[in-house]
Amino acid sequence: MAALGWLTPRRRSATARSVLAGEASAEAARKSSQEAQEAPQVTAEEPQFPVIGDDKAAAFFDLDNTVMQGAALFHFGRGLYKRKFFETRDLAKFAWQQAWFRLAGVEDPEHMQDARDSALSIVKGHRVAELETIGEEIYDEYMADRIWPGTRALAQAHLDAGQKVWLVTAAPVEIAQVITRRLGLTGALGTVAESVDGVYTGKLVGEPLHGPAKAEAVRALAAAEGLDLSRCAAYSDSHNDIPMLSLVGHPYAINPDAKLRRHAREKDWRLRDYRTGRKAAKVGIPAAAGVGAVAGGTAAAIALSRRRR
Question: Which residues are annotated as catalytic?
Answer without folding.
Answer: 62, 64
